[in-house]
Write a structure and sequence with these properties.
heterodimer, A: 264 residues, alpha/beta, Rossmann fold, four-stranded antiparallel beta sheet, 9 helices, 10 strands, 30% helix, B: 293 residues, mainly alpha, ABC transporter involved in vitamin B12 uptake, BtuC, globular
């Protein structure tokens, strides 16, 4: 898995302010009826880094992703990508997304190549007929994730790791500057996990910003430059080693850290 | 009587030629649309919209407007009402669909019963493929051509919407608009199909062909070929059976579709019941021969 020298860094061809954070979430609150999913969540990601997003189920990780992608409208707060409203980045197809396994219909009659081609739709004409440049970008993305030989296979006939790499390839074909991955290691064996970790490190080396939600704390030191602990807001944002300190993890997983002397 | 005679004899009647023409057109358009409906999971929505258009069609008949216009208005109304009931109360979507479409369909039945010239309108409910007029053929042709053109031009967007609406949103497309387009086409296509099988059975042409094709292939582009081909053949067989058995044409068209689905469900090479059992057996044998690597 080598990065291609011919590939332009994703950040270089994006409009927007290069000094601004790649992703800035500013005081975002999302409520579904009485349920508070995000409560004044603020965080900021620098360009070209891999960040792990750690939190238990229901901590708001998926809601945060949906807010960045425009699926959920926050009641309060704003999301900015490269200094401009996230809508600008969406319109420019700069946000790539690798969905959770259970959010995909794996019986859907599409091949690996079809899915990767969907990354190119935003730049295509009315009927989304692929041009030579689109086919080249798809071939290059498939090669980069190592799925060239399986390009024509229906997505349901792939292993867990191959499925994830298919969607990563879609983000590459799209030339996304911000990649969001929702639990990419769930249902993936250790060998494939290492492959995906290498791939994501490579993408960050291109200048892309990668945000990965994961339960898998063991993969974190290899994978991420920094980590965010989530519980309806970003409780902690810093180095992976510090994030994995028991007292920090305990807060994210809803437990008070053990204290000497016993508090009320 | 030879097989050729069985096929050729009905064609000497003008009404049979028209029936076959209209049936094939309706079968093709419905089958194409059904490929997306079954993949999005909107079969129930197809059922709802195809029934809910009835009052619109009757009112259009009364005021002399094109049927499609009335159908579109009530199709949209049904979708909006379903969304409102589901979104603003504790009622779940399936119940909301059931309430809205039966009420609108019943309203249509009431309108049929109080509208003079009941003979024409009862055909809307049960289909009247053998008595279709030239004006109706023209209307069906125009609507089918519009639906066909939109489906083919926007097929990649609609497939993206069916497969991954979140990605569509993330790259700046509007899944809401694409969903609305699909529902609008559903209302228009319902008008095409209700001439053939009647409003009660339209949903069969809008679900079965896509489902049958989905069991036969792993490629969406092939689904878009298989579904219309199978659906037109089934519909032709249904029309001929109705001629020779002197039985309800709309009913037979749907019965044949259902029988063919049943055969495919059992016999399809990879996704049929027998194919899956064979693959499972092979996997067991393979696992026994080859130790885990």
């Amino acid at each position: 898995m080598t990065s291609q020298p011919a590939h332009r860094p994703a950040a270089a061809d994006t409009a927007g302010d290069t000094a601004a954070p790649a992703l800035e979430v500013d005081g975002v609150s999302v409520r579904y009826g009485d349920v508070v999913a995000l409560d004044g969540c603020s965080l900021s990601l620098a360009r070209g880094r891999v960040t792990g997003l750690i939190g238990m189920n229901g901590s708001g990780k998926s809601t945060l992703f949906k807010t960045v992608m425009g699926v959920v409208k926050p009641q309060e707060g704003a999301v900015r990508v490269d200094g401009a409203d996230a809508q600008v980045a969406r319109a420019g197809a700069r946000i790539g997304y690798v969905p959770q396994t259970e959010d995909v219909d794996w019986t859907f009659p599409v091949s690996v190549r079809d899915v990767v081609m969907m990354g190119r739709y935003a730049g295509m004409g009315l009927t989304r007929r692929p041009r030579a440049a689109d086919h080249e970008a798809v071939d290059a993305a498939l090669e980069r994730v190592g799925l060239t030989a399986l390009a024509d296979r229906q997505i349901g006939r792939l292993s867990g790791g191959q499925r994830k790499r298919t969607f990563v390839a879609r983000g590459i074909a799209q030339d996304a500057s911000l990649m969001l991955l929702d639990e990419p290691f769930a249902g993936v064996d250790k060998v494939s996990e290492a492959t995906i970790v290498r791939l994501l490190r490579d993408l960050a080396a291109d200048g892309r910003t990668v945000l990965v939600s994961t339960h898998d704390l063991h993969a974190l030191p290899e994978l991420a430059d920094e980590a965010i602990l989530m519980l309806r807001r970003a409780l902690f944002h810093g180095s992976v080693a510090d994030a994995l300190e028991p007292q920090n993890l305990a807060r994210a997983f809803g437990m008070e850290p053990p204290r000497m002397g016993g508090a009320a | 009587m030879s097989l050729i005679d069985l096929i050729v004899e009905p064609l000497q009647y003008d009404f049979m030629v028209r029936a076959i023409l209209v049936t094939v057109v309706a079968a093709v358009v419905c089958a194409l649309l059904s490929c997306w409906l079954v993949l999005v999971g909107w079969s129930l929505m197809g059922d709802a919209v195809s029934h809910a258009v009835l009052p619109g069609v009757v009112l259009a008949y009364v005021v002399g407007a094109p049927f499609a216009l009335g159908a579109l208005v009530f199709g949209v109304l049904a979708v909006v009402l379903i969304g409102v009931v589901r979104g603003t109360s504790r009622i779940k979507e399936d119940a909301a669909i059931g309430i809205v479409f039966t009420t609108l369909f019943a309203l249509g039945l009431v309108l049929v019963s109080v509208t003079p010239s009941q003979t024409d309108l009862s055909h809307i409910i049960f289909g009247n493929i053998l008595g279709v007029s030239t004006a109706e053929i023209v209307q069906i042709g125009v609507l089918a051509a519009i639906a066909l053109a939109v489906l083919i031009l926007k097929r990649r967007d609609l497939t993206l919407f069916a497969f991954d609406p979140t990605h569509a949103r993330a790259i700046g497309l509007s899944p809401r608009m694409l969903g609305a387009l699909l529902l609008g086409l559903l209302a228009v296509v319902s008008v095409v199909a209700l001439q053939v099988v009647g409003v009660v059975l339209v949903v069969a042409l809008l679900i079965i062909p896509g489902a049958t094709a989905h069991l036969l292939t792993d490629r969406f582009s092939r689904m878009l070929i298989l579904a219309p081909v199978i659906s037109s053949l089934c519909s032709l067989v249904g029309i001929y059976l109705s001629y020779w058995l002197d039985a309800a044409s709309g009913g037979l068209v749907v019965v044949v579709q259902g029988v063919v689905f049943g055969l495919v469900y059992l016999l399809a090479p990879r996704h049929g019941l027998l194919g899956k059992a064979r693959d499972a057996r092979r996997a067991r044998v393979g696992a026994a021969v080859e130790p885990d690597t």
